Amino acid sequence: MGDAGKQRLLPTLTARIHRLEDVSQQVATQPWARLDCQQLLPGKFEGGIGVVELGGIRVVREFQNATVYKVGSMPDNLCTLSIVEDIDPAMRFSQFGHEAGRHVFFLPTGTECDIMIPGGTATLYLALDQDRLFTEARHLNPGRWDQIPTSALVIDTDRRANFVETMSSLFDLVSVQLGRGVLPDLARLERMVVSTAAQTLDVQGWEGDPGRPSGSRIVATMRAVRRYIRVSLARDELPTLSDMCAHVGVSERTLQYSFQDQVGMTPVAYLRVTRLNQARLDLTFPSSADITVTDVAMRWGFLHLGYFAKAYRDLFGETPSETLNRMPHRAAGWGLEGNRCR
């Protein structure tokens, strides 16, 4: 096979919203899963399901008014991370009951699933390639995932909100961009989703991770990471947390120590501020007269436009639209190619 044949295929994007009038439609709209669904309580069934397919990744939102019992198993090398948006005493996820409603559930490949979802409950899940997920997770915490879980896990994580926001924002982004007839940067979106999943999974401690690094190691780590971020942005690439760990060869904990010591913030926060500054350059000196705030937000990896606007205003004291519409910069069409990371 030639080099071209060895390259990973670029992802494709599809987005669908289905109105459900029968429980069997839940199965039909998710052909990648091995599921059997039954309606347990009497009444006319109504529901909806939204599916975004990004390459081999699927993000699914479900809602139904009737109690549904799902039984099945995960296909080869496909795993899921899922959340229940509304807690109900009747909810059950495999051996975990409703008390785990604030958590994230992980189902590895080959796992049998046994799920009770009460009527009126909304769920959100991400299905993706298990090998790819754990490759990312090992970048964050080398040595931890030598053995991949073979049974369902419930993950008590403070990153649940970030997981929900990223997956929900993907729906909004696809709706906005496809509505404009614009195709987002699919490879970039795919990497962000996988990175978010890996960060959500890897929160139960850092077993085997070294203690606080030495001062010289912190300085060397920061120097290497800053250089990597600068070069990546110059190539119009957005590095993720796992990218930074893999490139420098350190764990997430070491990276956290280094950034807190040197700049007083987490690596994710530092990268977010860096991206906001790059977005400000694009808005202050737009490359074309028809550029929009959405275009700039998407370019710099902000899927949620409301979050982008708030973070931008908090940092710079004005909204992205105010920056973009300010004269005379926009009228003159100035550019500062030499000052931005491209």
Task: Furnish the topology, listing elements before pairings.
Blueprint (H helix, E strand, L loop, with lengths): L2 H4 L6 E8 L3 H5 L5 E6 L7 E8 L2 E8 L3 E6 L4 E7 L7 E2 L2 E2 L6 E4 L4 E6 L3 E9 H11 L12 E3 L4 H20 L6 H16 L13 H20 L6 H8 L3 H12 L3 H18 L8 H7 L5 H12 L3 H6 L3 H4 L10
Helix pairs in contact: 3-5, 3-7, 4-5, 6-8
Please explain how this structure is put together.
- It is a single chain.
- The protein is α+β, with helices and mostly antiparallel strands.
- The chain folds into 2 domains: 13-172, no CATH class; 207-339, Homeodomain-like (Arc Repressor Mutant, subunit A, Orthogonal Bundle), CATH 1.10.10.60.
- Helices cover 42% and strands 20% of the residues.
- The protein has helices at 3-6, 24-28, 130-140, 160-179, 186-201, 215-234, 241-248, 252-263, 267-284, 293-299, 305-316, 320-325, 329-332; strands spanning 13-20, 34-39, 47-54, 57-64, 68-73, 78-84, 92-93, 96-97, 104-107, 112-117, 121-129, 153-155.
- A 7-stranded antiparallel beta sheet has the order 1-3-4-11-6-9-12.
- A hairpin with a 2-residue loop joins strand 3 (47-54) and strand 4 (57-64).
- The longest helix is centred in the middle third of the chain and has 20 residues, at 160-179.
- It is globular.
- Residues 1-8, 204-210 and 329-342 have low confidence and may be disordered.
